[in-house]
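Run: sequence + iron/sulfur cluster -> complex structure.
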Amino acid sequence: MNTNIFIQKSFWLLGKALPKCFGCTYCRAQNEMPLNVKYETLPTEVNTCFKDVPVAINLWYGDPTLQVDYTWHILNKLNEVRHAGPICIITKGNATVFSGVYKKFPYLDLHFLFSTFGVDNSQFCVSKTSQLISNLAWAITEGVKYSIEFRPIIYGINDNLETLKRVVTIAAAHKCPIGYSGLQGTPNLVNIWGTNHIPFKPYPGQAFGYKKQLSGEVENNIRRLAKEYNVPIFPKTACLISYIHGYKKDYNAHYYRPNEVGCKHCVMNTQCEMYHKCPDTDTSMIPYPHIIAHKTNHICHHAAHNLCNSVTPDCSNISGTMLQTDIELTSADIRVTKWLTGMTVDCKFVESPHLSDFWNK
Ligand code: SF4
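>> structure
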């Protein structure tokens, strides 16, 4: 197992955690991600087939703007190998500390994602609208790709129409898409909030869990505003990145779960649907034994064996062309397989951010 590699959700993560960050109350990085970490193994150091994979820098506890020199150090390393995939920096700090980054690294596909809570002077978050606006203006001048991350949207705190409209109109004025989601409330986080009397509540009729749920009303309000102001919106970061970087489909293959992620409302729907129907089945870069199979109503291995606590109806209704293997993979193996092929994988798997050794070239 490659324990010197950390892959989670949408990214190959590079960088390290800090003992301090902005101290936002809902922070998952502080309570759910490892705090004593440093990962510097570049994708192409493992296998050249990873030259295009998406990378995020310093996504653990410790915003990139609080570790500026170290963020430049990782950028330098990626530049030395001419990494060709999207390189993402997610921040709610002052991005101007990275001024000159585009001139210095013109070959890197840089993308700044500006995180906002949508309200100022919140007891739960340091984010400020003025910082968001000045960061967006900086990104335009700098020449890097950029977007807004409006997360987490919390019941009764930053989900009112005025806040949603504020974020959507800022996005419209700066011509950028928005990634958004509700609040993840794992049992551990819910316990911490309870102990510290933090008044986060799930939406009526919902329970906290791993899925970052919103109410139907809030979803509808965001979609209506996005349509009115012509702003592309995405509940999944990978979908947003695929859109901005001109991919022909979502690199995380969410189109296998179209109801869960709301594909029918998405600007990428036609192209993702086309790829889902007719994927590129060249899998010569996949190093483990597998076959290509077409399946309907397939049930995810974790859902079928009660190993997952965030099952949705889409988990037992997966259809399309997929890779099938008898060997047990890690969830990181599955992620990179999706990134490389655009297909989902039918297999047994264990949750792990580390890649199996068979990827080593
Ligand atoms: S159509 Fe679905 S999978 Fe494709 S980018 Fe949109 S939400 Fe993601």
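>> summary
The pocket of iron/sulfur cluster is lined by residues 236, 239, 242, 250, 254-255, 258, 261, 263, 266, 268-269, 272 (CB under 6 Å). The chain has a mean pLDDT of 94.
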